[in-house]
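Reviewer 2 asked us to include a model.

Predict the structure of this chain.
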Amino acid sequence: MRWLGIWMLAWAALVAQAKEATPLAEDEAVEQRLIAIADELRCLVCQNESLAGSRADLAQDLRREIRGLIKQGKTDKEIMEFLVSRYGDFVRYRPPLKPTTWLLWGGPFALGGAGLVGLVLFLRRRRVPDATLSVEEQSKAAALLAGDQ
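Predicted model (structure tokens):
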């Protein structure tokens, strides 16, 4: 009986957190175009997820705005230009290669190269000391290995 009460409380908590399902688009062509555009855009909240796959509130707002622009008759290029002018090139998964985006394209390679150079320098400075033992240390080691203490 106790488990039934716990199960009912857990179920009530899940139901309380549930949200209403968002309705599907009235026009499937608009929805397909929206998904194609949103797949090319980065979620500004998640940053590692596409706008199409993100469940963040801002992503939902941006998808609603893109849907509205599609219904206004804007082309995909015009929609992309609008979003880039508003949020910058970072919003695109594949920003164009230009002076303002060189850091986006080359930054990871520069950081990786700097890390590799730093690792090589660190390992070169960290020399292993000469491992030769003195005669006295050799006799102590031999005695320890032989079991004579």
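The chain has six helices and no strands. Residues 102-125 form the longest helix (24 residues). We have added this to the supplementary material.
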